[in-house]
Q: What sequence folds into this?
């Protein structure tokens, strides 16, 4: 993901991956976030080098659908069941990817009460136009032809279920050599959104929390850790909604 120059200068020297000099894709930002967490936990240099050796080559070969789902988890903070419930056309005839205002830089995901939203309360989540464009490309080019309304369809031409997302995380874990779970990407979203200036109400609403108590930890994480240049995260997570949509 994002090329975090300040962090790179402070971390131990490692063998550079061939893609390191190019602009990093958004999925790598999730790995950088994980790496910063491990570095903050004072893991050894050898462990960090092991992570780099396992993960960086792997990121270049992620399957299109799995790559997109991970980008979505990081870029929206929605839950596994909510990812599975997203529809190309929902029961009300409207898409859950709402791009009518994309020209003005405003794109939202609709997380529906009947599409897996926790607490059965619908909400809307801002995402970046770049992520929205990737979702539209997937729908047009890679999504299998099916009568199911769900956005994400697996290799068996059936909608993804929570167990399928968990299996995806298991496959990622085997490849990278450390634990990978979907909820960690939700944490990454909340921490970075806080760093990008989201206020508590926008963040609480987007994440579907009933109150603000859980959000306090993300404020602490955002203030304690150097997450790199703000601009590098803006390809992945929407900027402060008040500033962008005023």
A:
């Amino acid at each position: 993901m994002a090329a975090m120059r300040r962090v790179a200068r402070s971390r131990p020297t490692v063998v550079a991956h061939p893609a390191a000099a190019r602009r990093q894709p958004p999925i790598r930002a999730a790995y950088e976030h994980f790496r910063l967490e491990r570095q903050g936990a004072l893991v050894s240099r050898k462990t960090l080098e092991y992570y780099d050796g396992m993960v960086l080559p792997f990121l270049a070969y992620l399957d299109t659908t799995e790559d997109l789902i991970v980008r979505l988890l990081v870029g929206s903070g929605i839950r596994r069941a909510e990812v599975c419930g997203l529809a190309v056309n929902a029961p009300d005839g409207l898409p859950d990817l709402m791009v009518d205002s994309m020209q003005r830089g405003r794109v939202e995901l609709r997380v529906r009460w009947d599409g897996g939203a926790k607490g059965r309360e619908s909400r809307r989540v801002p995402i970046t136009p770049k992520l929205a464009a990737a979702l539209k490309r997937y729908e047009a080019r890679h999504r299998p032809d099916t009568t199911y309304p769900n956005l994400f369809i697996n290799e068996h031409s059936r909608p993804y279920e929570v167990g399928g997302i968990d299996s995806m995380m298991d496959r990622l874990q085997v490849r990278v050599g450390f634990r990978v779970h979907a909820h960690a990407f939700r944490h990454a979203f909340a921490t970075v959104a806080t760093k990008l200036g989201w206020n508590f109400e926008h963040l609480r609403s987007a994440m579907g929390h009933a109150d603000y108590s859980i959000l306090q930890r993300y404020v602490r994480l955002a203030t304690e850790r150097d997450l790199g240049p703000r601009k590098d995260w803006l390809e992945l997570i929407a900027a402060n909604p008040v500033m962008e949509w005023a």
User: Anything to note?
Assistant: Strands lie at 97-98, 107-111, 123-127. The chain has one domain: 1-237. The chain is about 50% helix and 5% strand. Residues 27 and 70 are 7 Å apart (CA to CA).
